[in-house]
Amino acid sequence: MQKITTLDGSITFHNEQFDESYHSRSGAKEEAVKKFVEPCKIKEIAKTGKLKILDVCFGLSYNTVAAIDAALEENPDCKIEAVGLEIDTEILNAITEIDAPFTNFFMMREAVKNKKNNSYTYENKNIKIEILLGDATEIIKTINNEFDVVFLDPFSPKKCPKLWTAPFFAQIYKRMVPKGRLATYSCARVVRDNLKAVGFAVLDGPQLWRRGPSTIGVKL
Ligand SMILES: C[S@@+](CC[C@H](N)C(=O)[O-])C[C@H]1O[C@@H](n2cnc3c(N)ncnc32)[C@H](O)[C@@H]1O
Question: Which pTM was predicted?
Answer without folding.
Answer: 0.97
